[in-house]
Structure formats: C-alpha cells, structure tokens
Amino acid sequence: MANQFLVLSNPVSISRSSSIYVKGKEQWLGCCASKTKPMHPWLSNGCRARASLNAVEIPRQWYNLIADLPVKPPPPLHPKTLQPIKPEDLSPLFPDELIKQEASNDRFIDIPDEVLEIYKLWRPTPLIRAKRLEKILDTPARIYYKYEGISPAGSHKPNTAVPQVYYNAKQGVKNVVTETGAGQWGSSLAFACSLFDIDCEVWQVRASYDQKPYRRLMMQTWGAKVHPSPSNITEAGRKILEADPSSPGSLGIAISEAVEVAATNADTKYCLGSVLNHVLLHQTVIGEECIKQMESIGETPDLIIGCIGGGSNFAGLTFPFIREKLKGKINPVIRAVEPAACPSITKGLYAYDYGDTAGMTPLMKMHTLGHNFIPDPIHAGGLRYHGMAPLISHVYELGFMEAISIPQTECFQSAIRFARSEGLIAAPEPTHAIAATIREALQCKESGDAKVILMAMCGHGHFDLTSYETYLQGNLVDLSFSEESIRESLAKIPLVVA
C-alpha cells in the first residue's frame, strides 16, 4: 500500500515501502524512508501522499448552522392554516427528538453513543488528494475530495439514516416508511433499520426502480419492502397513474406516498433523506472531520464544491466551513452544482411551496420549480427533486454560497476522466461536482493560480453502471428543463406572503 496514508487504531509494524500515519503518534512513517520523520505533508523523498485518512476522531457533536446565521431562516408553515408549524403538527410523522432537532437553535447537538458506535463501521472517512487527476489536467491546483463511498450503503446517507432510525427505535416505533430517488437513501435506511430491528418500506421513483435494480436488491437484502412510485398502494399514487399511467415518477410523488402511509398509520413514522434541517444537521460529521483533516496537512480550501439535489451531502461538507468563514478564519468560495435538467436553485423561484406533489407536507420557503414539476428521467435520479433544502436556500439568499448547473454529458465525461486517473467510479450525483472541479482546475491551468479545491465525493457508482454504459455507447444526451412546464408548475405554488 505504498504512497498512501491510512489511519490505524494502534501502532503496527510495517515495511519501509509504506507511508502510514500511526494514530496517536506524532510522526510520519515515511515513504521508502529508513526511519521515522517529523510530521509534515511532504515526505522525505519528495513524494506527496495521495490519500490522508488523518488521525481525526469521529465528531461527538453535530453542528447546527442556524445558531450562527445573522438572519434566521423562515419557518415552515402548516399546509392548511398557513401558520408556523408546531411540534405537535409533526408528531404523526417524526419521533420527538427529531422534531426538537428540526427546530433547534443550539449550536451543537450531542451524537448518542449508540450512533457513534455504528458510525465507527465507516467513519472517519478519507480525505484524498487527487494527485493523478491533477497530473492529467496539468493544473497547478491542488484537488482534494472527501470520500463518503466507504459506508456500508456506499454513500453519505447512513450518516443520517442511523440516527433517524435510532430515535425512532428509542421511542418504540416498529415501522418506518420513506421515498428514494436513485436508491442511495432507501438502501441506507434499510441498512439502519436492519441494525435496530425496525420494519422498512420504501417508495422508489419509477424511473430509478427500473434503471437501478441492484439498488432495490440492496434494500431487499437488508429486509425492506420496495414499491415503484407512483404505485396503486396509495391514494396519491393512484391519482398520478390515472392521469398518466406511464409516469416516470418523481421524488415529490414518492414523498406523497410515503407520507400518506405514515400519516394514516399510528404505528408508522416517516424518514426523509434530505431537505429537512435535522437531516442536514446529521451530515455535518463530514465537514467537521474534513476541517481537522485539512488542518493536519496544512491546507486551507480556496474553493469547496458539492453536488445538490435536496442538499444534505452539500450541507454536510460545507456548513462547518461556513461557520469558520463567518468567524473570519477562512474565506473559501462555496459552490453548489446541480443538473441542468432540474435546476431548482439556479432557475427556481424562492417561495413557500410543498415538499411533495400531493401537498401533504408543510409549506417550506425554498428554491422550487413547483411541487408539480416532474423532470425528465435523467441519469441522476437522486438529483431530481423539485425543491432545495430550505436552509441551503436561505444560505444562498444570504450570499454565503453560489450555484451553477451542468448538463449530464459533461458530468459523465468528467467522471470517466476521474475513474481513469483516481480509480473510483463515482455515483451519477457527484459527477456534477467532479465536472465543476475539472472546470475550475483547467481555469487554474490557464491563469497559473494554484488554488486548493475541496470536492464532496458523496458515493460510489457501482450500481449505476447502466448510466455509464449509456454514456460509453454514445447514447447519453443532454436534457434541459422545459420553460413551459416550469411556468405551469410554478403557477400552482400556493400564494403565501412571507
């Protein structure tokens, strides 16, 4: 395992060909070195480590960005009264502790020991320098990526699935329901439920259900029931199928189906994989680790890039860095990247809208394409949500981040370059971040600017290879949103003055 840094639980004997940082020891075991060297990011023979799974502890608290924002985000509204939502309004869907976290203004929230023990299965996750990608791009930029694909489900989603299921189990809940787009969230929730002996039922967007059977099989392996959405099981699904029997589905539709089941069954709660505050909160373990990892190698990011669909992966990495930016300690540009075919933050309206298609959820102030918007079944099923996390939307409105959209052929072209240099096959979602990173690195080549670029690599694409096949066979085409369909969808947004 030459030219790698790995974190180990205890000191071990190694060969001289290894480069390993022994956890708890203030020394590098140098690459091809005859003796240990002082800790320094450059090794004695001049080679730079490609990976750094630095000696950081798993964070013991989640970070709540709301506590440090100069302007608090607008509250969610009851869909019938249009008044700010009350805790009791959410009790049919969520356990008490998650309701508290959703509305919390506390800066830090302790992670339960039981959750930390499960996090140890994959955390801390590696911060890796993309040395080979830098070389093929011939860029002076230094590119790092925080890789969440080593979790059991292959993405960042278990960071919130585990605590959500834990709090449900602690309250005695025996059944949970959810929706999933690309299948990353559904498989993560199924994994978490298997650990706490809770039944799990998932509505998977039809386009993804058909395109990604192995995601469905992952869920079923962990014991979940999986339905294509829209389905005939719920009233919301039946209405959609009556209007369009060949509907490809959407996350908004799948949310409506799952919420309907939870709201009409007293023994069942609902879990959500993105968008809500408590979900973004749980993901901040990513950024908290990454801050320490970058500090340990003496680097500060000039630019942080992440893909956005609902926003949890992006928030998880960036929110702790935004905290440091608000303190004046660092000043990175923070850039979100979304698909051109579903540009909720770059083309959407900032307004109160439902989180689901049927209008069962609270109204949230967010960037939205309209809750009736159904995007084309593009490759990245998980980036097809009609809205953006309210907290990310608020941060964007405050000017603490920027956003761009990129078409899918460029994303896959970039993902191929990444796979053939760094070796990792990215899930379709982070290909957007890879494409934006390559754009920036090539600009650095032109300008000579040696920026430090930090990228969110939220999961692997081992079960998304049909999308790669489509690209490699030359059959992947760029799909763009329809201005007319967005206008029609936006016309149905509730008129709320706030």
TrEMBL record:
Reported cofactor(s): pyridoxal 5'-phosphate
Keywords for this protein: Amino-acid biosynthesis, Aromatic amino acid biosynthesis, Lyase, Pyridoxal phosphate, Tryptophan biosynthesis
Pfam families, sorted: PALP
Molecular function GO terms recorded: L-serine hydro-lyase (adding indole, L-tryptophan-forming) activity; pyridoxal phosphate binding; tryptophan synthase activity
Cellular component terms (Gene Ontology): cytoplasm
Catalytic activity as recorded in UniProt: (1S,2R)-1-C-(indol-3-yl)glycerol 3-phosphate + L-serine = D-glyceraldehyde 3-phosphate + L-tryptophan + H2O
Pathway where this protein functions: Amino-acid biosynthesis; L-tryptophan biosynthesis; L-tryptophan from chorismate: step 5/5
Record has Amino-acid biosynthesis as a keyword: yes
Residues forming coiled coils: none
UniProt entry tagged with the keyword Repeat: no
Top enzyme category: lyase
Residues in Tryptophan synthase beta chain-like PALP domain copies: 121-459
SUPFAM superfamilies reported in the protein's UniProt record: Tryptophan synthase beta subunit-like PLP-dependent enzymes
EC number: 4.2.1.20
InterPro entries given in the database record: Trp_synth_b-like, Trp_synth_b_CS, Trp_synth_beta, Trp_synth_beta/beta-like, TrpB-like_PALP, TrpB-like_PALP_sf
PROSITE patterns: TRP_SYNTHASE_BETA
Family per record: Belongs to the TrpB family.
Purpose: The beta subunit is responsible for the synthesis of L-tryptophan from indole and L-serine.
HAMAP family the UniProt entry points to: Trp_synth_beta
Known partners and oligomeric status: Tetramer of two alpha and two beta chains.
Designated name of the protein: tryptophan synthase
